[in-house]
Amino acid sequence: MRVDFIRHGLTAGNLEQRYIGSTDEPLCSQGREGLKNRVYPSCDMVFASPMKRCIETARLIYPEKEPVICGSLRECDFGDFEGRNYEELSADIRYQSWIDSGGEAAFPNGESPAAFRERCVKGFLDCIARVPRGERAAFVVHGGTIMAVMERFAVPRRSYFDWHIRNSHGYITEFDGETITVTENI
What is the pLDDT confidence band of residue 126, given thresholds at 50, 70 and 90? Predict the structure, then answer.
């Protein structure tokens, strides 16, 4: 089955390099413009995170399709780091502790990376189960969501952070039920 993963367009928080997970930001004007300058593959079904930035991106890319909303595909809840950037967090000892963990420690008052990844993988599989045989699916989601799914299924195997993708970009893939093979970058 062909499955495309597209990271939502830019938001104001993305431009300021903030941790934007549970904050429900819409696209900024640069984000909407950036989507107009790209060509995206066609699909039969569109799945999206319930966050404004993903729904808006899905509707701009696929105006003829109503996205199927999947709550499990939302971005990680960054807890006390939410809405802040590196500069604002650099003196916070909890942030340094999180950095020292290699990004594996739970976010203070937020979600643990392991729970987030598990949620995303389950959400992906739940959505895939809804796609009729022979149809193509597109996932318009968050960078972290894409990274979680790719880390779990993509071959050759790579770490979570190796699958980072820029806003408005993504991967065209083939999923055989067990592994994902990237055929092209968007």
Answer: very high
Q: Which residues contact 35 (CB under 8 A, 6 or more apart)?
A: 9, 27, 57, 60, 61, 168
The total of other beta-carbon atoms located within 10 Å of residue 73's CB is 27
Task: Please report which helix (H) or strand (E) contains residue 183, including its range.
Answer: strand 180-185
Residue 10: count other Cβ atoms within 10 Å of its Cβ.
Answer: 23
Give the other-Cβ count within 10 Å of 100's Cβ: 10
User: What interhelical angle do 113-128 and 143-153 show, nearest 10?
Assistant: 80
Q: Are residues 68 and 102 in contact, defined by beta-carbon separation less than 8 angstroms?
A: no
Find the mean pLDDT for residues 3-9.
Answer: 98
Helix (H) or strand (E) holding 32: helix 29-36
CATH number of 2-16+26-78+111-185: 3.40.50.1240
CA 113 – CA 171 distance, rounded (Å) = 22
**Each residue's pLDDT tens digit, 104-119:** 999 999 999 999 999 9
| Distance between CA atoms of residues 77 and 63, nearest Å | 29
